[in-house]
Amino acid sequence: MLADTQSMMTPFPKLPHISILTIALFLVIAFGLLLVLTKSAAAEAPLGPVTLPPIAITPVDAEKGRELFVSKACVACHSVNGVGGKAAPILDAAAGNQDVDILDFFARMWKGADAMVILQRRELGYSIDLTASEIGDLAAFASSLEHQQGFSMEDVPIYLRDWFVDDPKDWGEELPRFNQ
């Protein structure tokens, strides 16, 4: 009966003889290749923080900002030390904070850009053009208690005082109410 059972079984195909050394060598090569591929993929996709190129920062001058505040007619809508218009946010420097945050200043300007353009065209007859350097200087002035000290009505030319937007009814219906 044993002979009958053996004759009924399907024989396995003969495999070439592979030594343990050959299998070990194959695994070492495969593992090494996997390690190399993983490291090159990791080098292409950094896991840590990304290094950015240097950011250009223009030096700022609070005294120039003080001059620009008047010469660009910002004072028609904004005030410092109670001098200026009331149609836009007050730009008094915060006590104890002397940091100049140009990006924050620009972001606040951006929020009011539509209203500023409308008021500038209505009050001045044109839209004020500012360079990045001038925005930085205005931010420095808005942040500097030292440069705001002594700012008074005498710093504003007489003709410009007539342009102050003080009365909310002068703002127009299409403008947001910043200081209410």
Can you put this structure into words, describing what you see?
There is one protein chain. The protein is an all-alpha fold and 180 residues long. It has a domain at 62-170. It contains 8 helices and 2 strands; from the N terminus they run αααββααααα. It has a two-stranded antiparallel sheet with strand order 1-2. A hairpin with a 2-residue loop joins strand 1 and strand 2. It is elongated and about 85 Å long. The termini are far apart.
SSE layout and pairing:
Blueprint: H1 2-8, H2 20-44, H3 62-71, E1 79-80, E2 83-84, H4 102-111, H5 113-123, H6 132-143, H7 145-148, H8 158-161
Antiparallel strand pairs: 1-2
Helix pairs in contact: 3-6
Summary of the model, kept short:
Helix content is 46%, strand content 2%. It has 180 residues and is mostly helical.
Mean pLDDT: 77
Radius of gyration: 37 Å
Strand content: under 5%
Number of strand segments = 2
Q: Report the span from N to C terminus.
A: 106 Å
> How much helix, percentage-wise, in residues?
40-55%
Describe the main β-sheet briefly. 2 strands, antiparallel
SSE run: HHHEEHHHHH
Uncertain residue segments: none
Number of helices: 8
**Strand neighbour order, sheet with most strands:** 1-2
Global geometry: elongated
Q: What structural category arises from helix and sheet content? A: mainly alpha
